[in-house]
Amino acid sequence: MGTRSAEERQREIVRAARASGSVDVTVLAAELGVAKETVRRDLRALEDHGLVRRTHGGAYPVESAGFETTLAVRATSHVPEKRRVAAAAADLLGDAETVFVDEGFTPQLIAEALPVDRPLTVVTASLPVAGALAGRGDTSVLLLGGRVRPGTLATVDHWTTKMLAGFVLDLAFIGANGISREHGLTTPDPAVSEVKAQAVRAARRTVFAGVHTKFGAVSFCRFAEVGALEAIVTSTQLPASEAHRYSLLGPQVIRV
């Protein structure tokens, strides 16, 4: 086992991290048949390349910045974690009556976790979100028009942003491909970025919800600063020390 190259080892580590959500130095050293120091060196190299974030005794994977997964793929990765995060985000509704729900799988789960026993107007660019909420209780759904992006089934471009600009919303539930302290919230596609930025501008309160692999990832288009968020909802797989660093920029950080 110890004969494999550093590159092969590092590929193996990234694969393991993505498969299980995190890796442990001691376990990796045993599995790969190398010294712990070698694994630590591999993790440092992988962190330099933006593929993992090191933690005490291990690392967790960072989502790849230039690569956008389809909704179908997102619906199969980290699902229990996404459900917990979505439920905790929905709990932040407070007395909001008009709510923006972003495109993406976690926001879709947030939408499904919203209460049905009170009047709520949900504004969204996401066809799956609109479909999931259209027949529910006292929920009124407003679907933003525009060009539909095939992978995510969400609308974009000037029609979408123009329509969104006409609203004042109580709360926006926002997703992103990456969130970092230095570069804020980012996404690969400029058209998507425009819609997200407009939603943040239109909302009195903004909540970001995302799994731990989003943290430290940086994509092409920035649409909001961390300080613009009222709250960040993620899981306990994001280390407490890292969560604290984000909270110093302003938002309340909730780990579930």
Question: How would you summarize this macromolecular structure in one to three sentences?
Answer:
The chain has 256 residues and is an alpha/beta fold.
Strand order of the largest sheet: 6-5-4-9-12-14-15
Low-confidence stretches: none
Q: How large is the share of residues in beta strands?
A: 15-25%
Helix-and-strand structural type: alpha/beta
Distance between the termini: 38 Å
Global morphology: elongated
Largest sheet composition:
7 strands, parallel
What is the residue-mean pLDDT, rounded to a whole number? Answer: 92
Q: Supply Rg.
A: 19 Å
Please count the beta strands (DSSP E, at least 2 residues each).
Answer: 15
Count, helices: 10
**Quaternary organisation of the protein chains:** single chain
Helix content: 25-40%
Order of helices and strands: HEHHEEHHEHEHEEEHEEEHEEEHE
